[in-house]
Design brief:
The complex is a heterodimer of chains A (110) and B (112). Chain A is mostly beta strands. Helices cover 0% and strands 55% of the residues of chain A. In chain B, strands 2, 4, 5, 6, 9, 10 and 11 form a seven-stranded mixed sheet that branches. In chain B, strands 1-3-8-7 form a four-stranded antiparallel sheet, with no helix packed on it. Classes of the chains: A mainly beta (110), B mainly beta (112).
């Protein structure tokens, strides 16, 4: 079955620095979604990418979908303490199911 | 505000004692999902409903059952909880023809 791999598993960032988390699928995706889960919270939808090579920005967050629609990345610039949490990518496997990556847990040192 | 509600937020049960978790939504979404999430892991899909049609994941144990009496409510029944079933259980909804899922706050289940 489809597998979605996500790296790194943990990202410890100095406040103000940038970082990137990467997501790779074993199969071509129709779309990819990103969710953020704060500590003790539940996943919250951030964004969806559908088109090959698509790039979307949300303030300091930049999301990319690869040309082959098998990989994606999330880049955060000028990390803030509010960015703490686990970021999951989730690839759409079929009409109803999302395949979640293992997540990247981000901690920030002030 | 439209939302996904889960009750209780915390549930403690004894080994082998049946437990029911509930989820309700005011979003009027067709699809409702139940996920199991263990510490530092991704959510794992147990099953979902598309309207009244139930769809079980192949690797979901028979110990887990679900009911959806109407559009708004969905229940997760664990017939004989084992220690390995201790986890966060997340309910999520999705509208037809949309892709994003809306998660409830979860129920953290402890099995003693």
């Amino acid at each position: 079955g489809q597998q979605v791999m996500q790296i790194p598993q943990y990202q410890h960032v100095q406040e103000g620095e940038d970082f990137t988390t990467y997501c790779n699928s074993s199969t071509t995706l129709s779309n990819i979604q990103w969710y953020k889960q704060r500590p003790g919270g539940h996943p919250v939808f951030l964004i969806q990418l559908v088109k090959s090579g698509e790039v979307k920005k949300q303030k300091r967050l930049t999301f990319q979908f690869g040309e082959a629609k098998k990989n994606s990345s999330l880049h955060i610039t000028a990390t803030q303490t509010t960015d703490v949490g686990t970021y999951f990518c989730a690839g759409k496997a079929n009409d109803y199911k999302l395949s979640f990556g293992a997540g990247t847990t981000v901690t920030v040192r002030a | 505000d439209a939302m996904v509600i889960q009750n209780p937020r915390y549930q403690v049960t004894q080994f082998g004692k049946p437990v029911t978790l509930s989820c309700s939504q005011t979003l009027n979404h067709n699809v409702m999902y139940w996920y199991q999430q263990k510490s530092s892991q991704a959510p794992k899909l147990l099953f979902h409903y598309y309207d009244k049609d139930f769809n079980n994941e192949a690797d979901t144990p028979d110990n887990f059952q679900s009911r959806r009496p109407n559009t708004s409510f969905c229940f997760l029944d664990i017939r004989s909880p084992g220690l390995g079933d201790a986890a966060m259980y997340l309910c999520a909804t999705r509208a037809h023809a949309r892709n994003e899922q809306f998660f409830g706050p979860g129920t953290r289940l402890t099995v003693l």
